Write the structure tokens for this entry.
Amino acid sequence: MTVQIIFLLIGLAMVVIGADILVEGASSIARRYGVSEFVIGMTIVGFGTSLPELVVSTTGALHGSSDIAIGNVVGSNIFNVLFILAISALFRPIDITRENRRRDIPITLLVTFLVICMGMSRTLFGLGTVDGLSRIEGAVLLALFIIYMAFCFISDKPSVPEEGEAGIKKNYAVWMAAVLIAAGLAGLIIGGRLFVDSAVKIAHMLHVSDKFIAITILAMGTSLPEFATSIVALAKHRSQMALGNILGSNVFNLLLILGVASVITPMSFADINLVDMAALALCSILIWTSLFTGKRNKIDRVDGVLMLVAFAAYMVWLFIKL
């Protein structure tokens, strides 16, 4: 088991470093074209920091392990909001703009409930014979992802500079940025494969289910890029990039990653229960309710505390059910 733990840590390090390198190159290219900080966070950075989840879930789907694919997405989205966004809000309250209220947060909420309804259609509505996502439903999610991406760029507006903000990353020459992107992808692909293989072997040695290890260790490990990016963005007074990173990553996870995994092989939700889905739904609900509670139009420290309490309760429930 010691060898597998070492491989797990090496794979995780490669995934995190690869994501960081890729985001640095992609963000540099995006800024050259005057894209707003929020859209950079929601698309380029969101995509880059979601690549570990994409690699892990796709690898799990190719190996026929839907527990890994689905558990990783569900766990990552829960960790992104109830832990990363919560810690970020405690570190520095996050401003919510008019576009966030009218466009970005409602889209995140709708996408989350759409996936829950599609994946749990038998349990919730008595439709079909099993809970899960078919290849057709996966194709629908991918189509919605393409529409979402186009909509983000078409409706983009230049960011209003935040007080005290400073650049997070330096701008590279286009060729250098391309090299960083290629190197980051290589690290993600190789590290993701090593990470998944080691995690599954450790789970089997400990007689722990694939779902549990996917929704905890895998999810938290692959969400480290989001955590680092959000904290650095807030430290540089770029709360819109931090918020965009979390919202973008969650939408990417649900539409792109589950879409790709479901097209590869139908995804079974047999080991995902209503408590898991309730925790996933709560993530989007808490972001939406932050518009009206505490300091309006801010995800403030009170919201952060509520999110952390919800995260702790969900983790306790997972360990009790282990």
